[in-house]
Amino acid sequence: MTPSLDTVFSAIADPTRRAILAMLLEDDMAVTDVAEPFEMSLAAVSKHLRVLTGAGLIQQERRGRVTWCKLQPDALRQASVWMQSFGQFEPMDIEVLERFLEREFNAAPDS
């Protein structure tokens, strides 16, 4: 099962998680190495990693005593395709996108 678009966008909404993804663009990293540049506990970084894993954006793998993180770039494909649909607004007008998102997320679901 692929993660929902909402799950992916929720995961990348946090700047710490975006920073982690950017770090993993370079190479696989041990969890302790991922945590090193952040001024937070290893437990807090681990929570961010669980969110990214749940969204399918990274994969975690035990190698001996070390847990490694690996970027799953294909997981962003659905979000990328969705964002590309806004290419019709050349150049991209952020205010138009914001108004669209407000309408989209504030629309009451039919009950």
From TrEMBL:
> What are this entry's molecular-function GO terms?
DNA-binding transcription factor activity
What SUPFAM superfamilies does the annotation carry?
Answer: Winged helix' DNA-binding domain
Q: Where is the HTH arsR-type domain?
A: 1-93
Q: Which PANTHER family match?
A: SLL0088 PROTEIN (PTHR38600:SF2), TRANSCRIPTIONAL REGULATORY PROTEIN (PTHR38600)
Protein name, as recorded: Winged helix-turn-helix transcriptional regulator
